[in-house]
Amino acid sequence: MQRWRGLEDIPQDWGRSVVTIGSYDGVHRGHQLIIGRAVERARELGVPSVIVTFDPHPSEVVRPGSHPPLLAPHHRRAELMAELGVDALLILPFTTEFSKLSPADFIAKVLVDRLHAKAVIEGPNFRFGHKAAGNVALLTELGATYDYTVEVIDLYVTGNAGGGQPFSSTLTRRLVAEGDVAGAAEILGRPHRVEGIVVRGAQRGRELGFPTANVETLPHTAIPADGVYAGWLEMDGESMPAAISVGTNPQFDGVDRTVEAYAIDRVDLDLYGLHVAVEFLAYVRGMLKFDSIDDLLVAMAADVKRAGELTAAYDRAR
After folding, report:
1. What residues have CB less than 8 Å from 128, skipping those under 6 apart?
2. C-alpha distances in Å from residue 294, one per residue of 13, 89, 210
3. How deeply is 55 buried, as exposed, middle or buried, from its count of CB atoms within 10 A (0-12, 13-18, 19+)?
């Protein structure tokens, strides 16, 4: 998959293409429907498929300080998009100046002049241009002028997660924030994942016999509610079942929230300074302060056992 940052990166000889535009944070199952149809339509027409997205998130520019928690960083989104068969990804730097483009100018400058759109695939709630004034109706209307078609993909509704609401990144973020990582996974189509560098912490886990990777997560990461979770610790393509702790470590009067993952039965790991990923499968229990270290150790042993059972029972290929 080709990756471009800014309109100037698009090859000068770029021909017609099928385009879809959006933040696509998380590349959840609703996004997958839209992207999948864009890829399919591009193959029908014999042209490449292109996704247009933005960095930083538009809300941070329009309303500074309102940057939403992110379900996936751009490099992870690109990986997921490539797996869906996308031919090119265009990341547009979202600046104050760019935010002032009228919907008509946005279409002319991006879709027509540079990407030569032959077809555009979007969800029903797609908005674009200054103050999000553009919608699917305008996109379709201008398509007659600029010789592109528009196809709108209705998003399926979720099952148990969110009470039947449409797939959305907003709903997924809420479920993650509430600790409902199973519900979030239902929307994402895979377990929620956070990434970062392993840094040195207080090393209490090692002293207690459960050495953890203390992950310094990327800025604006959507981190689950405080608690203990079952999941996986991933490094260099290796995925290890893990018991994961999120919170301030109240047993030792901690202050800073951390994400720490214990790779079950792996006490030999030296991960300091390495980039790792942590995937959340299921909520195990809330974060507690125990009466004694012995009580904490009993709970930790039970957490590890439960995490091992849950990860062993999960079919990651489904």
Report:
1. 21, 103, 106, 134, 135, 139
2. 68, 52, 14
3. middle
Give the model confidence (pLDDT) of 49-72 as tens digits: 999 999 988 888 888 877 889 999
pTM of the model: 0.90
Strands in 105-235 per DSSP E: 117-122, 149-152, 192-199, 213-217, 227-235
Give 264's DSSP letter: T
Predicted pLDDT of residue 166: 78
The model's pLDDT over 82-92, given as tens digits with 9 standing for 90+, comes to 999 999 999 99
In the chain the first and final C-alpha atoms are separated, in Å, by 25
Q: How far apart are CA 265 and CA 210, in angstroms?
A: 9
Here the tokens at position 178 are 């509430």
C-alpha to C-alpha distance for 192 and 39, rounded to whole angstroms: 24
What distance in Å separates the CA atoms of residue 242 and residue 172, rounded to the nearest whole number? Answer: 22
